[in-house]
Amino acid sequence: MWNYSEKVLELFYHPRNQGVIEDQGEPEYAVSRGEVGSIACGDALRLHLKIEIASDKIVDAKFQTFGCTSAIASSSALTEMVKGLTLDEALAITNRDIANYLGGLPEQKMHCSVMGQEALEKAIYHYRGISLPEHEEDEGSLVCTCFGVSGERLRKVIKENRLTTAEQVMSYVKAGGGCGSCLSVIDDILASCQAPAGMTNLQKINKIQATLESLRPYLQADGGDVELFDVDNDRVLVILKGACGSCASSLDTLKGLIEERLRQEVFASLTVEAVEAV
Amino acid sequence: MTIYLDNNATTQVDERVLAAMLPYLTEFYGNPSSMHRFGGQVAKAVQTAREQLADLIGALPSEIIFTSCGTEGNNAAIRSALATFPDRKHIITTQVEHACVLNLCKTLEKQGYRVTYLSVDSQGMLDLLELEAALTGDTAVVSTMYANNETGVIFPVEQIGALVKSYGALFHVDAVQAVGKIPINLQNSAIDFLTLSGHKFHAPKGVGALFVRRGVRFRPLLIGGHQERNRRGGTENVAGIVGLGQAALLAQQNLAQMQSVQALRDYLETAILRTIPDTVVNGQGSPRLPNTTNIGFKYIEGEAILLLMDREGICASSGSACTSDSLEPSHVLRAMGLPYSVLHGSIRFSLSRYTTEAEVEQLLAVLPGIVAQLRALSPFNAADQGWIEERTQAVVPK
After folding, report:
1. A108: nearest CA partner in chain B
2. What percent of chain A has pLDDT over 90?
């Protein structure tokens, strides 16, 4: 039997926001949907968002889910989390945020949180008229044909969750868990997401420095800034200036953003720590 | 209150079985191999158990080797058959075997054996013509189940055996789910090896047996002392063996009672089909064990059903992917080519002689509500087939 958290069980037994949102034709609101998964995969989610056009805010969210306990709980959690957020704020939600909201998920069930994040992204992109690549229809870009997972999606999940093994990848997006023929490709992608072998300390620091430099103009435009203090193996120590002076939450957001970017650009296992200017 | 409808997973130890065992866990602790009366009386108890078990399956006591579990019996039989024919490098089994047979075969493939995994049809039944086409002079052993653990589908083992004999190969039957539930008589049978396990018919876990027909060569899996006439080393699990013997005796006395278990199963099945729409019984078109029903509840997922039933104290099991560590649903239901809308929502109810009508009524009282609750959450339904992307595929084991 799976070891589910109290929160998972609570949202499974008493799911909040189940159902559909019908488009009532109200001119100030838009309704958008995101569909992820299929009956063959064993889980599927249709997320409904009601968006207030003027404020770009999600005013209501509902879900329909086919799946196990944690799939239903993750979907319900997601709808609770996004209500009241602007679309930009909602897009910043990662699958780990969903899992954390639930008090954690068994590792083999992390794919339920990924499904939530993807449905959210789909619904918002759909509303904004941005077309997402249809992985399922484009067999050529698929790494895992059993579960319809593209290389692009694999890299994103590997980086966001700092995955290092094929078994973890299976737990998060199921890839490799069917016929297993793509496992060696997944290994290759994992390797390419880690720190490139043979990168010297100096190369690493230069790359971090260059990435930070590329970020500074955006931060400065908002009254913030970042400066590289030191690099200690996987730890990147930076001096941060937030947009709102030393407001702790704004610094945290800033640190998170910088970390995401550095992980994408340099290597997936690094962490960013903010230090006080000496 | 617990309503236990998962008897193909394991069963309750009969209190008479426990009573028979207890003296061998307390005062009669001697070693059956010892050269004193204190050990000798224990050896007698083991011999009595051997006779009781032999009686249940129409075997000779000397054809019984006590083991620790079904997995041991299956491993020992298949490996022994291969050792008997060192020049034959072909094994035939089916796609719906228990993991211990499938994984053993996968291991043997790496060691140079060729394995044919016979398919089954949508009712879980083998095709004897496919078996005949697969048999060659190179075939060392054919290993099939007697009855399937998930669907209860019973294979025509004597017909299979006759074909196997005509090619001079050995025939092993995994009868773990069949023994104690249906009559078995090995006296004039084509079966060379037959595996059984105690905890599937009210003996404790940790004891089983392998039938090896008289005259069939047997090479032990566990090399040790002279126990089990040099065929299975290791000091006997005396209390377990005594329990197995007692359970065999009770099973024989209760075989007629399996008809009432079947009547209860049929009632349960019919009532579910009548009261809950979009449900199917998997393998219904084949002969089945009297205690087993495997029902697919379309458009919802098995683990969610299990958890909601668990809250009502009802124990069953599911072939859905989410109930296992693997991401694929049941290999048995996939081999039957069932649509994914059915197999992710498949639940196995397995009854026993302890199952009461009141328990079945209690299940029937709550199950329609549970299914309706999950269907209300599901984006899929019979009217909206658009997004289902239904597919079926029989998958050969990796």
Report:
1. B325
2. 39
Instruction: List, for residues B279-308, the tens digit of each pLDDT value.
Output: 999 999 999 999 999 999 999 999 999 999
Mutation choice for B interface testing from A68, A76, A134 by most B CBs within 10 A: A68
Instruction: For chain A, positions 14-73, list CB contacts with chain B under 8 A.
Output: 15, 18, 35, 38-40, 42-46, 64-69, 71-72
Q: B388–A43: do the CB atoms touch at under 8 Å?
A: no
As for the ipTM of the complex, it is: 0.87
Among B147, B107, B117, B92, residue whose Cα is nearest residue B289 = B147
B322 tagged catalytic: yes
pLDDT digits (tens, 9 = 90+) for A227-258: 898 888 788 988 887 655 556 566 677 778 88
Report the predicted TM-score, pTM, of the whole model to 2 decimal places: 0.82
Window B:323-382, CB contacts with A under 8 Å: 323, 325-329, 340-341, 344, 376-380
